[in-house]
Amino acid sequence: MAKVLVTGGAGFIGSNLTEALLRAGHLVRVFDNFSTGKKENLIFDEAYPFLEVMEGDLGDFIACQRATEGIEYVFHQAALPSVQRSVEDPMGSNEANIVGTLHILIAARDAGAKRVIYAASSSAYGDTPILPKKEEMMPNPLSPYALQKLVGEQYCRLFYQLYGLETVSLRYFNIFGPKQDPNSIYSAVIPRFIDALTSGRPPIIFGDGEQSRDFTYIDNVVYANLLAMNAEKTQGEVINIACGRRVSLNQLLKILQDITGSYLSPVYEEPRKGDVRHSIADIGRAKTLLNYTPVIGIEEGLRKTVEFFRKQGRSSLH
Ligand SMILES: NC(=O)c1ccc[n+]([C@@H]2O[C@H](COP(=O)([O-])OP(=O)(O)OC[C@H]3O[C@@H](n4cnc5c(N)ncnc54)[C@H](O)[C@@H]3O)[C@@H](O)[C@H]2O)c1
Known about the structure:
This protein has about 325 residues and is α/β, with parallel strands linked by helices. The protein has helices spanning about 10-25, 60-70, 85-90, 90-110, 145-165, 190-200, 220-230, 250-260, 285-290, 300-310; strands at about 5, 25-30, 50-55, 75, 115-120, 165-170, 175, 205, 210-215, 215, 235-240, 245-250, 265-270. The protein has a domain at about 5-175 and about 215-245 and about 280-295: 3-Layer(aba) Sandwich (Rossmann fold). The strands form four sheets. It has a seven-stranded parallel β-sheet with strand order 3-2-1-4-5-6-11, with helices on both faces. Strands 7-10 form a two-stranded parallel sheet. Strand 5, helix 5 (about 145-165) and strand 6 (about 165-170) form a beta-alpha-beta unit.
């Protein structure tokens, strides 16, 4: 049983990770300012006595110190995670994503934490023409968000090299699953598609729909984080976490139409600034260093996600 901190624990990925850590018997402290995360995400089917929720902002260093006090493992998930939002408000996302990450690293170092596991992003690769994306490729961020997440990784590496704080950066590729917010204008494509199809509105595709992504079900990411707690030879490393399969938005919509039985045709709109054309991960390093292989594929993950949103009922989708 370890004492762990999940920053951004009320968000989509953070709350799923929190539940898995609690289930594994760890003492979990969640630190969140509830800007995009929700308190309801921390209500689980089972009651866990070892969950502590601390409301605070990454920009407040004293709050970060309080959050890391007595903590052995930090899962740093908190961020403002939208390409589009960062294009509109580069300063706001910079504060959360870079200054906030630096605060957590300093606080974790000073608190004597064993390891910080950082939620990095595949957006760092940008439009590098070579596929699949390998960690050693030169990054080419196309948005403030992508750049900020890359700076976070570099800080993690530096904190290991300079101060001996163990860090591991997991570069997530388009994660989806239960508790992902379908309602914000910044929402990711899968919850938006499911929301549209199940409520009888045509799904919107930005661009021609032939752009592709390595869509990865949440359980895979949670699994990778648990492996990263104790994996050897991972300190300071950057590791892709994905499925290693590429699906276009048009193909994705087809799969979701078959699952939901709703065959509404999409509306195509202008492509969005800062969006990458194609993305697929090489997951060889994750296999070697973490002994990671994806546990749930895209079709099964999409079925589970649709089932979750259906159970939530229409009221929570609007
Ligand atoms: N979802 C994906 O596909 C994806 C892909 C790559 C990387 N990531 C990274 O994974 C992490 C989690 O993303 P998510 O999709 O769960 O997003 P999310 O918006 O659901 O969760 C982010 C959480 O961080 C909290 N937060 C934001 N700013 C904060 C601040 N200043 N102080 C305290 N808490 C703050 C939010 O309230 C929210 O609970 C992020 O770091 C993101 O960059 C996500």
